[in-house]
Amino acid sequence: MQALSFRRQMFLLLAERMNQERSIQALYHILTGKKSSQTIQDIKWYNVTYYFRMFPYWKETDFEKDTNELQYLRYIASDNNRVMITEQGRSQNDNFRMFYRWPPVFNGWLYGKNAAVFWKRTALLVQCLSQTLAGNRRFLPVFEDISVQHWLKKNWPKTIEEKQQTAFILFNDLRNLLDELDERDAFLFMNRLTGYHLTGLTWTQLSNRLQMSEDECYFRFLGSVHFLLEHADRSAVLHQAASDLVFRDVLTETTKKTLRYMNEGWGMERIARVRNLKMSTIEDHVVEIASEQNNFPIGDYVEKEDQNLILHHASALQTKRLKVLKEAAQPKQLDYFSIRLTLAFYGREDHGQA
Predict the structure, then answer these.
(1) How far is Cα 117 from Cα 322, in angstroms, rounded to an integer?
(2) Of 32-46, 107-121, 245-259, the least confident
(3) With b meaning 16 or more CB within 10 Å and e meaning fewer, what string describes 90-109?
(4) Domain locations in the chain?
(5) What dotted CATH number matches 253-346?
């Protein structure tokens, strides 16, 4: 059995989780973090938020080469535009899972782009404290992001004593938190930092040091950042770096506009007319909202009897395919919107899977 690159292996694991019900392109959107109603629906239905935005830099041309190679090696096949994992692919996944040690935290869906902001703030703070306390006031900041520099100026310790205390606290907090991680993950985080007479290592350098692909280095580094974010309340300095970042602002911008109208009591048809959008687009928005809100009034859209019927067939048939569920519900005439909405509402992370 041929060894796979880390990216190809992650794709293969995701393909197995999607139960042969989605297209190769749909999986690409999950792994790169495309924030659309369809992708949000997919990651909730199939409980694959862990894979969201795992490789935001994966170019579509490279992705096509990788998936073509997986098909050539007979790990996956394609049927009616749906990616199907073969027995050989399942065996590969079983072998990988048997030996691979996952990071304790990775949540691209929850932390998304804010993880990058948190990392930049922390890294710039470390660099500036290190340089300043060493008496060096002339250095190039590791990040030129204006918003990050503005945050640092706003939170910069004023006296030398405060700088020393902040550095002492941050050093000890990072050491204590990173001690809870795999040694490689802690190494990745610490060696990406820049300080006085110390330059953070590149991904290529880290890859060579750890004998690990750059893709896996990035993934595990990001996992360490997510871990620190999840436990930021255990450190006054890290809590400050994360305090104004919103981690549950997950709705797309166009869906937020629809939600504002819904909160004012507008019906779907009126919203579609005023916003000059197709009814199917507004339905997408409502499904997205239902997947996030635990107080969503699903009973206003789908009768309880129909909800139970949909959930029963989804569980019995082990599928989220709309056409299959619609046919299974016969002679009951259920529309696709009712099925999608029910699956979205009951597929929320705080509700458990359908």
Answers:
(1) 38
(2) 245-259
(3) eebbeebeeeeeebebbbbb
(4) 6-100, 114-242, 253-346
(5) 1.10.10
What digits encode the pLDDT tens for the residues 312-333?
999 898 888 888 999 998 888 8
Dihedral pair phi/psi, residue 195, rounded to 5°: -150, -160
Fold match flag (6-100 vs 253-346): yes
- Other Cβ atoms within 10 Å of 278 Cβ, number: 10
Q: Which fold has domain 6-100?
A: Arc Repressor Mutant, subunit A (1.10.10)
**Minimum mean pLDDT range among 56-60, 187-191, 247-251, 299-303:** 247-251
